[in-house]
Known about the structure:
The relative contact order is 0.11. The chain has a two-stranded antiparallel sheet with strand order 1-2. The protein has helices at 9-40, 44-55, 61-68, 72-84, 106-128, 133-152; strands at residues 88-92, 100-104. The radius of gyration is 18 Å and the shape is globular. Helix content is 68%, strand content 6%. Strand 1 and strand 2 form a beta hairpin.
Amino acid sequence: MEYTSSGDRAAADFSELFADLVRCETRLYNALNDRLRERHGIVTSQYEFLSYLRGHPGCRVADLAAEFAIGVGATSKGIDRLEQQGWAARRPNPADRRSSLLTLTDDGARLVEEAEQTFTSGLAELLGGTLDAPSLSAVTRALSTLRSALEHDQVGTPTG
């Protein structure tokens, strides 16, 4: 099938794919959000930030913003909330006085460790309970390829 931007069948397929991607992401995010809030008192975005900080100690707010394709202002506010809870801290950046380096606190490290089980078991239940292994593998490969291309071309990167 040839893919065009005209009003033919391919364009309709792209619209359906977009709707399915967005609705699946929203439903998965919300389901994980509910579980994390109930069991750990955090939401999915906080878990993702904490998990990223665990794997990237000393990163900057700009690094988080780039990873999650969100604005620096929103990212900074998210880190402010984590700091207020005592889960993350900003440290002076010796290489650049205009930025800070981010770290998990001991409480933040414990929280993300505990929440990881809820997160991963939730994903396993939601995805593994619906898709067989070959389908899950195919979806993973396809989305990874798409994400890599979008990131390479900086598609959808916030400007602020």
